[in-house]
Amino acid sequence: MLENLHIENYALIAASDISFDSGFTVITGETGAGKSILLGALALVLGQRADSHVLFDPQRKCVVEATFNISKLSLQQTFADNDLDYDDHLILRRELSPAGKSRAFVNDTPVTLPLLRSIAQQLIDIHSQHETLTLVGSAFQTRLLDTFNGGKEAFSDYSAAYANYMALKRHLEQLSAADAQAKRDLDYNQFLFDELSNAALSDGEQEDLEQEASLLANTESIKQSLSAVLLSCDSEEGSALSLLNAARSQLSKVASFHKDLDELYSRLESNIIELGDILASLSSIDSNLNFSPDRQEFVNTRLDLIYRLQKKHSVQSVAELLAIQQELEGKIQQAEGMDSQVRHAMEEVDKAYAAVQDKAEKLSAIRRLSAQYVEQQLLPTLAQLGMKEARLSVVVSPAKELGPLGGDIVSFLFNANRGGELRELSKVASGGELSRLMLAIKSLVTQQSLLPTIIFDEIDTGVSGDISVCVGNILHSMASHLQVIAITHLPQIAARASAHLKVFKQVDESGLKTVSRIKPLATDERIHEVAVMLSSEPPSPSALQTASELMSDNIK
Fold first, then answer.
1. How does residue 556 score in pLDDT terms, banded at 50, 70 and 90?
2. pLDDT given for residue 161 in this prediction
3. Cβ atoms of 209 and 306 closer than 8 Å
4. Candidates 1.10.3720.10, 3.30.450.20, 2.60.120.10, 3.40.50.300; correct CATH number of 1-129+450-520?
5. What are the residue boundaries of the structural domains of the chain, listed by start?
6. Residue 133 has pLDDT above 80, yes or no
7. Predicted structure pTM score
């Protein structure tokens, strides 16, 4: 249950500490006094998004802190799963800086906003005026039925099966799209692969061909140069080799007379041998070097093919062409094997859909049973709320296809008047009737819910007189098994509470700003406040007497 709410620098609240009792608490105040501000601050600490416009003083941070007693909620595992320290008294805190930066804390440990919200959702249910409008929606009506007869577990099972089915279906769609694309590309990829495969390329081939092409293109000039070299180095007379031989002959005659000459003679002889080898190699190259037009044409044609393929595929080497060839081969094989993958995926989707259908049928059976239960339980409560002639039919009909909520369309058919045609809520129910119907539903649902606290924001909209007494009695009854907090403008409801908070405006100590304040009322103050709600300020003696009588059951 909510034990305390501390608010600093939020909207018109400079600073406030509010304690809450475990039973039925009402919050009253004039229009604009700040009742909605109180709910806004609570929503902030429960994880609602906010910005710096809510700061009372734009130069200071806003702090909202809520303390809950969670000793009976068995939340220890939730805290352990999120690496949080557990304590029976849980403190949720939210801070908002002037720059708009927000921080959230659970028992002084910083947490993300989604985690704060997930914990808060297990603590409190805030019913706003806007939520009443959701009553006319099929989604709300459908999920309402899942509150009873094991519907929550059945819906959880269905949701898991449906999520698995949708995931497999998306996978099948992706595979099918890839298969279609692969088939569209198959002919072109096969053509490209065949072209590369028929080219019979080999790594390093391009460099060898380019070198041979250069050689063939320059054969004549090479042979001319070789002939000139051989002629100058190895002719009969006056060649380089004959001159070196003559020099060696002369040096041999005197080499024995000087040690250096002997060494030089050896070096000269080595050079003659080396030159002889060079000339022999040049002669061999010259003999074997023959120009072949056919070979030149082959080499050039081969190079043209390589260059064309490189340009076509925007690469610079044969190695890259070979890599593309391998990649194309993989795509072709993949395209040829996609059919089996698609067939397997279709089988998985069919199995998953069968499982979803099974879960949906079980869920539908529970909803049909719950529809009868809801009708039986709501009608007496509606009668208490002044709609004795009201008729309600909860219809569960099959949807055209399975969806996130199952295979059902749930409709609440209603009419508040005898003999009136049963029609959808949105077409026949007034705002006051919707409020009373929602209160009856909340009263029924809270008996199933584990949430320890519920807050009503003007659930009494559109009701008055004796009906408001009935609303107060229902809220008082609900407070026997959970904490109920209600913002109300009706004295009959305020009188049925076990605790009373008044919200009012006043000028602060500086005389410059208007602030909202919250005050717990003692018994005599409560009688006075209810009397004011019945009449005016100051209340008449008769209003005070009526207020005292209204509160007689609650005066402690």
1. very low
2. 95
3. yes
4. 3.40.50.300
5. 1-129+450-520, 181-335
6. no
7. 0.65
